[in-house]
Amino acid sequence: WQMNFLKENGFHFITYDMLKADAVDYSEKNVLISFDDARLGALKHAKEVLNKNDIPIMMFVASSYQEKTAKGVYEDDISAFMTWDDLKKWMAEGGIGIGAHSHLHLDMSKLTEAEIEKEIKTNNEIVFEKLGVTCEDFAFPYGKYKKAFLPVYKRYFDTVSTLGSGLNYEGIDKAQLRRTAILRMFSHKDFCK
């Protein structure tokens, strides 16, 4: 119903690649759908709706989660994490971009520059090894970061997404993109607002 609401209300589904290429008409109502953590719920519950409606997404991967899954550490079918094979299959079918979300999913605002670099490099190396893609986009775990370290992220990524409130607009710094978290407990009214 959420995707139907967006479609029925004239939203255009865009991608990070469109943002980077400045191929977005900011006079339109645009929405970019992304998921954090590569959780199984996205695969089991969202993928069918997304594919049926030709809605592209970005999946921000915290590589240690897929490493845990490979070792058999599973939870329920929503909170558990996809396997590398799950992600490869979805990528082969199309409609999904892969972004970086750190390796250990730590609060990046509490890390030193060296620790940040280690998180980024480890995540990027594992994602490249397992999926054959270079991450060009990053989303902060928990949306937390220190502005002083934004240049570190800019060295590795074309876009950096926060959980800062508000909308993105033409000319916004692509290293401080805003995202609105939509949680599963949101009511219809909350989502529409």
Mean pLDDT: 92
Radius of gyration: 16 Å
Give the N-to-C terminal Cα separation.
Answer: 14 Å
Q: Total number of β-strand segments? A: 7
Strand content: 5-15%
Major beta sheet, strand line-up:
3-4-5
Largest sheet: 3 strands, parallel
Determine the number of helices (DSSP H or I, runs of at least 4 residues). 8
* Contiguous uncertain segments of 5+ residues: none
Structural class: alpha/beta
What's the overall geometry? globular
Q: What is the N-to-C order of secondary-structure elements (H for helix, E for strand)?
A: HEHEEHEHHEHEHEH
Q: Helicity level, as a percent range?
A: 25-40%
Short description:
The chain is built from 8 helices and 7 strands, in the order H-E-H-E-E-H-E-H-H-E-H-E-H-E-H. With 193 residues, the protein is α/β, with parallel strands linked by helices.
Description:
There is one protein chain. The protein is α/β, with parallel strands linked by helices and 193 residues long. It has eight helices and seven strands, in the order αβαββαβααβαβαβα. The strands form three sheets. A three-stranded parallel sheet has the order 3-4-5. Strands 1-2 form a two-stranded parallel sheet. The radius of gyration is 16 Å and the shape is globular.
